[in-house]
Structures are given as C-alpha cells and as structure tokens.
Amino acid sequence: MGITVALAGNPNSGKTTLFNKLTGAKQHVGNWPGVTIEKKTGTIHRTDAELVDMPGIYSLSPYTPEENITRNFLVGESPDVILNIVDASNIERNLYLTLQLLDLNIPTVVALNMMDTVDKNGDRIDVKALTDILGCKVVPISALKGTGLKELTKAIVDTGSSKVPSKPIRMNDRIESLIDASEKEIRGKVPEKNIRWFAIKLVENDEIISTELKDSRNELSDDINGLEAEYEDDAASIITDARYRIIEDIVSKCVRKGVKENAETLSDRVDKVITHRIFGLPMFIAVIGVLFMGIIGYGDYPGIGTYFTDMLNGWIEESLQPAVADWCADMDVSDELTSLLVSGVVGGVGAVIGFLPQMLILFLALCILEDIGYMARAAFMMDRVFRFFGLSGKSFIPLLVGMGCGVPGIMSSRTIESERDRRITAMTVTFVPCGAKLPVIAMIAGALFHNNGLIALFVYVVGIVSVLVSGIILKKFKGLSGRPAPFVMELPPYHIPSWINVIKGTLDRGLAFVKKAGTLILLASILIWFLASYNGAFQYVGDNGTTGSMLESFGRATCIIFQPLGWGDNWQFTVGSITGLMAKENLVSTLATLFSVDDEGEAIYTVLAAITTPAAGLSFLMFNMLCAPCFAAIGAMHRELGTWKATGAAVLYQCVFAYAVASIIYVIASLIYGETAVVSGWIIAILSIVAIVALIVRKEPYTKEETA
Ligand code: GDP
User: Fold this and answer.
1) Which of 71, 149, 488, 552 is the most buried (most CB within 10 A)?
2) pLDDT surpassing 60 at residue 342
3) How far does the centroid of ligand 1 lie from the alpha carbon of residue 17, in Å?
C-alpha cells in the first residue's frame, strides 16, 4: 500500500492545476460522504502515493462544510503526508492555513506555487529561510508551467517514508502556557498525535470541539477568561492575531519585494478598464452577448453551436430514427416495440443529446473565459447586486449559462465553493428561460399576442425576478440559511489559459451530461412513451397520445387543478406540460398533436387563438417556464443537491412557485385585457401574493448573527 497524501490549500491557489499535473488522467471522482462536494483522488506519477484533493479553504474553522470535510479528513483519517499548496504571490494570506496545518503534527510538504508570477513581479522568496522556519520541506513550483514538480514528488515521497511530523510554530509564551494547560486537560480524550491542534481549538472555543470536550472547556474557562480580560478580546481573535504576527515575522525574514513593488502590473491596468464601475458591467454584457450570438445564433444566422446541434438533431430525426424503424420492420418487430425504440428511446434521448454540441461549445468558451480570469471579475461585479437578494455574485455565472441550457447552468453552479450558495443556485437556475423554452414562448406570442417580442422580454424579466425573490425566500429554510459566503476570492492575474484545465473541464461536464442522458433521461423517456401509448387496461393505443392513452386520462382527470390559472378547461394543456418535462420544446409538438393539427406552424396558432385568451395563455406560458424543468435538468439538480429528497423538495418548490406566479399573472393580465378571471383564480392569486410577501418579510429563523 502506498502512502496517502492530502492536498490542502486556499481556493485559487492552483490546487486543481497541481492535482492534474501530478496525477494526469488517472483520477477518481466521487463525493465526500454526506455532502455534494466533489472528492478527487489520483495516483501521483511514477509513485504509488495516492493524492486526495481537499476542498479549497482558508482556515480549519468549523463554519463551512468545506472546512469540516478537510479537518475531519486530516484529523480523522490522518493522511501520511499533507501537501500544502501555497500561492507564493499571496503568501501572507496563504500561510494562515499553513500555520494551522503545522499544528496537526502530520508530516507536511509545502509547495510554493505560482513562483513564475513571483519571479515576474521581481520578488524574491528565500526558500532556505522559509524551510528553516516552517520546519518542513518547501519546494518552489509553478503548477501552470510544470516547473519543480519532480523535486516536489521527491519531497513528498521522502517525507512520507521518513515520517517526521510537522513542527508547530510557537505563539507567544502567554498563549503557549494556556495551550499547555489545555493539552493537559484533554490528554487521553483525543488522539495524542493531534493534541496540540485540539488544545488550540478548545481555547479558541471552536463550536464543535468545545461541545465534544465540554468538561475540559469548563475546567479551562477561568484561564481563558483571564487571557481574554488581559487582551480585551476573545480567545479566537487573540490566536488569529498571534498567527498573523508570526506571518508578519516570516514574511519580513523570507520575502523581498522587488523594485516593482508599487508599480502597476499589466493585470492591474487591464482591470481598471474591465471592472470599471460604470463601464464594467455593460462591457461584460456585450462580451456575453457576442458569445451567445456566436454560439446560439442571432436572427437568421445560426451560431456554431446551433449549427452542430441542428446537424445532430437532423441526423437523429432523418437518419437514425428511420434506420431504427427500418431495422425493426426487417426484423418483424411488433408495432409496439418499434414505437418504443423509435419514439421512446431514440426520440426521447435524442431530443436531449441533440443539445450536446451546443453545450460543449458553450462549456469550452466559458472554461476559457474562466481560466483567463475574466469570470472571476464578472462575479465580482455582480456580487454587490446579488448579495442584496441573499445570493452571491458567483451565482451569476450559472444563471447566465442557464440561458443557453439549464443543465450546464446547474452544473456550473459547482464552481461555487459555499455549499449553501451552490444549492440555492442549483434550485433556481432553471427559472431563467433556456433555449428550449423559446419555441414555447414563440408559440404563445404568435398565437395570442401578434408575435410581440415584448412577451419574450417579459418572460426573461419574470424569470430573473423569480431567481432573486427565491434567493430571499429560500434562505429562510433549514439547510439553505445563512448569508452568502463573503466574496473573498481574490482576482487572479489574467493569464493564458491552461489547455489541460480547459479541455478537462469541458469534457468532464459533457461526459456527466451524457451519463445522465444514458440513464435517467432514458428511463423517463420510456415512462412517458408508455403513458402516452397505452390505455388504462395496458392496451397499446398508438403513440400520438390522442386515443385514450393513460396520459390523456390523466390529463382529463387532473386538468381541474389548473382551473384557477385560467387554462384548466383543456386537458391538452396539462398533458403538454407533462411531456414538456422530457424537453420543453416538446410542448409545442404535443399541443399540435393533441389539437390534431398537422403543421405545427400557423395552424396551432389559430387553434390556440380560438380556444384561449391572452391572460390564460400568459399564465400557461409562465407556469411552464417556472415549473419543474426537463428531466435532464432535474437529473443535473440531483447531482448537485445530492439526494432525491432534496431534489424532490426543489422540484416541489419550483412547481408551487410557478403555480403562484402564474395565478397572479393570470389575474393581473385579465384586468389588463378586460377579461373576467375565474373566482378561484382571484382567490389563489390573492393567497399567493400574501404568501410570497409573508415569506419575503419573514425573519430568518435559522440564520445566526455573525460574530465576525
Ligand atoms: P484551485 O482553485 O486551487 O483549484 O486553483 P486552480 O488550479 O483552478 O488555479 C487557479 C488559477 O491559477 C487558474 O487560472 C490557474 O491556471 C492559475 N495557476 C495555477 N497554478 C499557477 C502557477 O503556477 N502560475 C500561474 N501564473 N498561474 C497558476
């Protein structure tokens, strides 16, 4: 058995880059137990050492799931070596974690990353002096350029075999004597190896450790109170302060700032323009606009993504489906099985897989922007706006991606480090209309509003407002409470993207999507096909859904639910909403089939115009925009939220919220268009308004006041 090496460091210190360089393609990706935070492991090249990637953290405090995972792993599983990656161009902040790691008494190697940037800035770091002070091997590297990796690997292996534990750095005598007292108090109750770390945590009054070692804490309370009185501060702050003093001392001894100290770097100058207070945001919108037009298309010009997606869709519809049908005919396969294969399996999965080219190109573009360092700036600019609604600026990127397709939108919420922010984002991304919802918008606008483009604008505005309002509402629920994580991520200097990161990032996300399509979407497609093709007695009735299928019976039985929204009289709308779950654009073809019009274009417009009103149409549209997204997106949500229970709760929230919003829109639109809304509509709308307002103004029951 080889040794286990835990890779720990601050977010953005280059962990991913180093991990990829050290392990190459031999990686295993899973989740940490109990949470949906990704756990990556891999074997370090030319060794049998197993590298475990820890979540990026700034400290070993118990406030975030990321910090808890890291400390539980380091203390509980005691890896053979801690590989602490330090961003040398930001050494003051990064050493704060290093000092805490050294307290653990686990053999440690420090990888001093980003040395290329340090050199470029003309700074000097005295590695020998740093090695002496930290008491462990310190290896200067550049993960991006791949320098120093051989030396690093050797240091890891040597440290692993010599098993020399890390040497804690002592704070001042006054604090150390209290730590000694704390150690005496807890000896025997905690692993002897990590006793100093536990002792310090107890003095700091760490929430978890103090509860575990309550008696010891009580015994120590006089001593701690004494210290706090002396320093006129709380113990945790006193220790933080002591650590920063040590860091100051280290930096003064080991770091020589180059002549360029105050000179602006090129990045700084570029940033002045790009994150400009007034022009920053419009410029960003322009960049994204061009990107989307290039990929998705504009007017008559198909974007490159759309071009390939159309090609794939065309091939599925015109070649693959007929080929499967022909094959079935040759093989004398029954009508039922043919229909299952052609419409259910190939049609259902194909409808979703067809989006793959567009998604891959979008991912690629976004990965590049991210790796250049631009996305960090965009999130930074949006942070102030979003924070107001209980979301962090980092939620902005998923929302943006979600306009193309909800699946990558939800998946890109993975880049948000705080679990709470990530969950809320994953639950609300699909409120912004994705590309597949456009045909539905076009249908309603065409049939009932003379093709008025403002309807589309209205849908986007309601979608975005829904995200923001949900940010406020959801943070009042258990598990989602708390303030958005502070925007601590520093803006990394701009640089040329690392192609390994970009390509790996793109393929990982694409692959996750394909896997989803192969399993969940396949099952869901078969289920819907089954409901649409069989009647209650399980007799095959053909797959166009109009001949007494279970789906039709279900639609007829349940459409009454939508009476208050103004479109409960036509069961076809209910069935359309259900098939929309397979892919939202299905809604159009389903309605066309169910209203027995051959051509989806003008004919369906005429039918809709004849049987429904603008207010009801708008309410139908809004319900379908906001309610449960398609199965692919639900699958992606499950991946981010971790359990089916949480996913179910999220879908329920979306449906209830959609219902409430649709009822309000129905009543208001009725007033505007001079229609008479049904009474039940009024009742539901008023109740909805009261409920939404109440949830918005309600106090946050689960959010603790911040101490910091
Ligand atoms: P993580 O958040 O710790 O996983 O960090 P990443 O590996 O994603 O790196 C953050 C950013 O720093 C990326 O844009 C990397 O390309 C960049 N980066 C990583 N290592 C180096 C390095 O040695 N030198 C420079 N200049 N940039 C680096």
Assistant:
1) 71
2) yes
3) 6
Question: Which helix or strand (DSSP H or E) is residue 478 part of?
Answer: none
Q: How far apart are CA 398 and CA 437, in angstroms?
A: 17
- pLDDT for position 260: 54
Among candidates 636, 629, 635, which has minimal Cα distance to 655?
Answer: 629
Q: Which of 86-100, 285-299, 482-496 has the lowest mean pLDDT?
A: 482-496
Residue 96 CB neighbour total at 10 angstroms: 17
Residue 89 Cβ < 6 Å to ligand 1: no
- CB-ligand 1 contact for 114 (6 Å cutoff): yes
Residues 6+ apart with CB under 8 A from 99: 169, 243, 246, 247
Contact 405, 436 (CB under 8 A): yes
Q: For the chain, state the CA radius of gyration.
A: 29
- Long-range contacts made by residues 242-246, C-beta under 8 angstroms, separation at least 24? 242/171, 242/172, 242/175, 243/96, 243/99, 243/100, 243/171, 244/96, 246/99, 246/169, 246/171
Distance CA(656)–CA(689), nearest Å, equals 13
CA of 20 to the centre of ligand 1 (A): 11
Q: Domain 173-256 adopts which CATH fold?
A: Helix Hairpins (1.10.287)
What is the distance of C-alpha 373 from the center of its chain? 18
Q: What is the CA(185)–ligand 1 centre distance, in A?
A: 42
What's the CATH fold of domain 4-162?
Rossmann fold (3.40.50)
Span 48-101, pLDDT tens digits: 999 999 998 888 987 778 888 999 999 988 899 999 999 999 898 899 999 999
Q: Does 371 contact ligand 1 (Cβ within 6 A)?
A: yes
